[in-house]
Amino acid sequence: MKECLARVVDNSPLCDTMFQLTLRCDGLFEDGAEAGQFVNIAVNNPSLPLRRPISIYAIDRQKREIRLAVQAKGEGTLALLRSKKGDELSLLGALGNAFSWFVPNNAKRVFLVGGGVGVAPVRCAFDELSAKYDCSLFAGYRNVGLVYGLDGIEKERVFAVSDDGSFGEKALVTKPLGEQIEKNKPDVILACGPAPMLRAVSDLSEKHGIACAVSLEQRMGCGLGACLVCSCKVKAKTPEGYAYRRVCADGPIFDAREVIF
Questions:
Q1: SS3 track for 101-159
Q2: What is the mean pLDDT of each run of 10 residues along the chain (261 residues)?
Q3: Alpha helix ranges (H) inside the chain
């Protein structure tokens, strides 16, 4: 992990509530960057001292660029929304572990599951892993206006649903996931999204005896493991039966069997 300066290459809309920030950051690629990792990005506003942790949405190693899918929600992300081409932003990264670490060496088929902003890191993983494995992407959205991350993927490899039925079937993403598990059981499931979705994906994987890794969405303070704001509960051999792990430093990806949702 190191601090590096990134130059804004592009800032454009992605869906109704999200925008895509493309950054050139040579320093980030000196130690490598992988799908599942995130960057801690400084906002060019002295009144907002805390960096914002954002998952990597796409990686272009040849151009030494990354793309971030950013939800314009709070003051920090709205400040990033105002970034212009040529602006410089300070990054810490790449931080955290990578999805590839959880894929068994002998795996052949990988299912990737994303919900909402969690579609971004699993789409990045799909792009990286599909060259080596048979990958399918499962995506859940609230409505058609929030759909992103599906461009350029063969239709037969995408299973997308929405809460209101305005895009694909009206269902939770676990419905097509469960159906495809019955038809083409994968060797591993990789998921990122809200906790209820991750809990349901974890339950499905356990039911069918499938290895599963989940990337947790957690509020962060420092992003470096010092402040403990992003601590999560995991199973442990302690008197209480659990311990706390830091999502930023020990994750953000964990074996689903360890996580107490």
A1: HHCCCCCCEEEEEEEHHHHHHHHHHHHHHCCCCEEEEEEEECCHHHCCCCCCCCHHHEE
A2: 88 94 89 90 81 93 94 88 93 91 94 96 97 97 97 96 96 97 97 96 96 87 71 88 87 92 86
A3: 75-81, 119-129, 174-183, 195-208, 247-250
Distance CA 25, CA 227 (A): 27
Exposure string of 69-93, with b = 16+ CB inside 10 Å and e = fewer, is: bbbbeeebbebbbebeeeeebbbbb
Contact 232, 244 (CB under 8 A): yes
Q: Distance between CA atoms of 134 and 198, rounded to whole angstroms?
A: 22
pLDDT, position 20: 95
Domain-embedded: residue 21: yes
What is the structure's pLDDT at 223? 67
SS3 80: helix
User: What do you get for the CA distance between the two ends of the chain, in Å?
Assistant: 28
What lies within 8 Å, CB to CB, of 103 at 6+ separation is 110, 129, 133, 187, 188, 190
The C-alpha angle with vertex 199 and arms to 196 and 205, in degrees rounded to 5, equals 145
Query: Per DSSP, what are the bridge partners of residue 10?
Result: 22
User: Which residue range(s) make up the domain with 133?
Assistant: 99-217
Reading the block at residue 124, the tokens are 């990045």
Contacts of 156 (CB under 8 A, 6+ apart): none
Tell me if 32 is assigned to some domain: yes
| Same domain assignment for residues 61 and 21 | yes
What CATH number should be reported for the domain holding residue 81?
2.40.30.10
User: Do 210 and 162 belong to one domain?
Assistant: yes
Taking CA atoms, 144 is separated from 12, 16, 30, in Å, by: 18, 9, 38
Q: Give the Cβ contact number of residue 17 at 10 Å.
A: 17
Residue 118 has φ and ψ, to the nearest 5°, of -70, -10
